[in-house]
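Hi R.,

Here's the chain you asked about this morning:
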Amino acid sequence: MTEKCPVGSNFNKFIVLIFSLAVILVVVIGAVDYYSTKRLIHTSARVAHTHEVLEDLESLLSELSTAEGGSRGYIITGNKAFLESYDTALARVDEKFKSLREITSDNPLQQARVAKLEPLVISRVAMLKDIVKLRTEKGFESAQEVVSRQRGKNVMDQIRSIAEYMKSEEELLLRRRTERTNATAAVATRFSQIGGFVGLLLLVIPFYLLQQEIKKRQRIQKEVTTLNQYLEERATQLESANKELEAFSYSVSHDLRAPIRHISGFVDLLSKQESITHEPKTGRYLKFISDSARQMGKLVDDLLSFSRMSRTEMQIGNVELAGLVKETREELASSWSGRLINWHTDKLPEVRCDASM
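And here is the predicted structure, written out as C-alpha cells:
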C-alpha cells in the first residue's frame, strides 16, 4: 500500500525555487565581485599612475637640483669631479621630462602645464651649460657675475611653481581615486558579506526542510508498513473465513441435494398414480412442486459454483440482460399472485460478464 502526499509536489517545487534563488544569488555575487574587482584594478592602476606622475615630477626637480649643485661646485672650486654628477643629472632631466610628458597624455590640464614647463626646463638646462662653459673658458669671475644676476633662480622658481600646481592636481586625483577605491572595496565587501549570509541561509533552509521532510516520510513509511502488516493479517483472516464459508457452502449444497432428489422422486411417483392423473388440480400442484424442486436444484448448483469461485476463473461471456430480467420475472411470478404489476423496461443491452454470478 502506498500513500500519495498531496503537498509533495509543492514541497519539491519550493525546494527547487530555493536552490534556484541560491544559484542566482551566487551568480549575482560573482558578477558583482567581478565588476568590483575590475573597478578596483582600474582604480588601482590610476592610483599607481598618479604616483608615477608625482615620482617623475620629484625626480625632475631633484635632477635639476643635482645639476645645479654640480655646476655650482665646479664654478666655485674648478674641480671637474663635480661635472660628473652634473652631466649625469642633465641626461636624466631629459629622460624624466619625456616620461612626464607621456604619462600625463591622458590629462589635458596637466599636458598644458607640461607644455609651459618644457621651455623653462630647456632654458634652465641651457643656462647651466652656458655657465659651466663660461667657467671653463673665462674663469670664476665671469661665471660668478652671470650667477649673481639670478636669472637661473627665477627660471627655477617658475619651474617649481608649475611643478607644485601639477603635484596639487595629482594629489587631488590621488585622494579621489583612493576614496573611490575604498568605497568600491567597501561596497564589494558588504555585498559579499550580505550575499554570503543570504546564500548560506538559502542553503540552510532547504537542508532543514529536507531533514523534516525525510523524517515525515520515514514516519509515514512506518505507518504504511504497520498498516500493510495489519492488512496482511486481515487478509489472512478473511482468507481463512472465506475458506470456512466455502467449505460450509459446499457442505450445505451437498446436504440439500438429497432432499431435493427425494422430493423430485416422490413427485414423479405420485404423478404416475392413476387416481392423481385424473384430477387436473392435483396434477397442477404436483407440477408446481416439481418445477420448484428443479429451481431449487438449480439454486443449489449455483451456490455450489459460487463456493468454488475463489478457486476458479470467472467465465466471461455475452449475456443478454433482457433474458436475465425475464428469468427473474418468471422466478418471482408465484410471489405476486393476485397483484397487478406493470413492468416498464427499455431495450436492454448485451453485456460481458459471468452469467452465474
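One quick note: Residues 1-7 have pLDDT under 50 and may be disordered.

Cheers,
M.
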